[in-house]
């Protein structure tokens, strides 16, 4: 058989590869499926452990039904020899003589022991149920040729590359490698499973339009999974801010007896209690500090930027909007391709993703009160927040937690 290299998008040759499927393998390797939003986030290391807890909680419905997909194909095979070969796949998926090692159980262990998920509390989304229903339906109601192409080239043959991407994302989120046994097992053994299914597929080569039927089934399997992964990513984005949005709708004040009066008042002209970021690059004339006001906010984040005379902060951009209020100092602010002169009492608006920089052209310290919506956008953005905003990483307190 042949398979796609887990680290790239080009087919690699496996000993014993069937040349009949070479063109189909190339079609699979270049399929738009590999550009889905979940894989993009995994490759970039953008997902948190909470994100993965949700994603794989949903994926559990697909995983625990996998033997049903194989059984659906088996029911459509007329040849008892082909059924007996497929039964080997089922035997391995079921753990062989040790049911506790069945793949579905190993995945359950990953969810319960590694991710701390109570399986009984998972609420499967409509898109998850639709994906599993569609997947099972293709195996039950399709022809044996369709089902074998759907499950071989469109399912088992993509496992090594697919799970390698997921493992990269999990490791980047801080999940220990010893908790990734389920993925490692499938990356190692699904070649053999795919080979069996591919042999079954090739037994139908005498049928009219064999390659086109295979391509259609392969394409459908990848499109169904790609749409599912994109829908999961849409839900990941929603879940990140769902709590804040709900508290807005609840029409209740965030003020509680536990919040001290000192947390409601902040004097920008005095040093802040929460240093946030600093950078100094003499060759570039950069020298500044950023402190954070200790307000108990969920959307607005107040910061104090201090720039010595004749210095500037970095040119940078970020997802949050910002309003600068100049308390002291004179100079100018760059907002994309515009320069705006400023003095004490002036305000400047910086739209999200606009490149900006503040330069102190006066003799004394420039002090800026910056009001941002970071507490909202910092959770909403799926990505590495600091890498878009700073020359170097800010302190951990400046970023949303990767929990």
Low-confidence stretches: 1-16, 393-403
* Contiguous helical run count: 13
**Quaternary status of these chains?**
single chain
* End-to-end gap: 40 Å
What does it look like?
This protein is an alpha+beta fold and 403 residues long. It is 45% helix and 15% strand. The chain has 13 helices and eleven strands. The chain has helices spanning 22-29, 37-44, 49-64, 66-76, 80-93, 103-114, 126-141, 144-151, 159-172, 181-202, 210-249, 374-380, 385-389; strands at 2-4, 11-13, 274-281, 286-292, 301-307, 322-328, 331-335, 338-342, 347-350, 356-360, 366-372. It has a six-stranded antiparallel beta sheet, with no helix packed on it. A three-stranded antiparallel beta sheet has the order 8-7-10, with no helix packed on it. A hairpin with a 4-residue loop joins β3 (274-281) and β4. α3 (49-64) packs parallel to α7, α4 (66-76) packs parallel to α7 (126-141) and α7 packs antiparallel against α11. Residues 1-16 and 393-403 have low confidence and may be disordered.
């Amino acid at each position: 058989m042949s398979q796609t290299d887990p680290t790239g998008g080009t087919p690699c040759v496996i000993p014993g590869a069937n040349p009949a499927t070479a063109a189909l393998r190339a079609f699979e390797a270049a399929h738009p499926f590999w550009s889905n939003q979940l894989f993009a986030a995994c490759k970039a290391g953008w997902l948190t452990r909470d994100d993965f807890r949700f994603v794989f909680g949903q994926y559990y419905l697909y995983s625990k039904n996998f033997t049903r997909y194989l059984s659906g194909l088996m029911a459509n095979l007329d040849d008892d020899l082909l059924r007996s070969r497929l039964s080997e796949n089922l035997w391995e998926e079921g753990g062989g003589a040790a049911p506790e090692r069945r793949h579905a159980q190993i995945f359950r262990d990953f969810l319960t022991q590694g991710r701390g998920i109570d399986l009984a509390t998972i609420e499967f989304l409509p898109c998850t149920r639709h994906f599993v229903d569609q997947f099972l339906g293709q195996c039950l109601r399709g022809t044996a040729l369709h089902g074998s192409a759907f499950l071989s080239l469109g399912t088992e043959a993509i496992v090594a590359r697919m799970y390698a991407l997921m493992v990269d994302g999990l490791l980047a989120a801080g999940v220990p490698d010893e908790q990734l046994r389920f993925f490692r097992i499938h990356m190692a053994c699904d070649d053999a499973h795919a080979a069996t299914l591919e042999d079954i597929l090739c037994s139908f080569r005498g049928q009219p339009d064999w390659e086109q039927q295979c391509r259609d089934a392969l394409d459908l399997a990848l499109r169904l999974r790609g749409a599912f992964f994109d829908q999961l990513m849409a839900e990941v984005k929603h879940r990140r801010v769902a709590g804040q949005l709900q508290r807005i709708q609840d029409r209740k004040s965030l003020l509680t007896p536990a919040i001290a009066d000192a947390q409601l008042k902040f004097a920008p002209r005095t040093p802040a209690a929460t240093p946030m970021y600093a950078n100094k690059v003499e060759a570039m004339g950069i020298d500044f500090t950023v402190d954070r006001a200790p307000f108990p906010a969920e959307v607005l984040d107040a910061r104090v930027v201090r720039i010595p005379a004749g210095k500037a902060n970095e040119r940078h951009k970020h997802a949050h909007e910002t309003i600068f209020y100049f308390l002291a100092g004179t100079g100018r602010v760059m907002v994309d391709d515009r320069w705006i002169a400023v003095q004490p009492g002036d305000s400047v608006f910086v739209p999200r993703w606009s490149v900006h920089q503040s330069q102190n052209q006066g003799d004394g310290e420039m002090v800026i009160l910056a009001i941002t919506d970071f507490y909202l956008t910092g959770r909403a953005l799926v990505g590495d927040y600091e890498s878009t905003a700073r020359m170097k990483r800010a302190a951990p307190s400046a970023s949303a937690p990767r929990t």
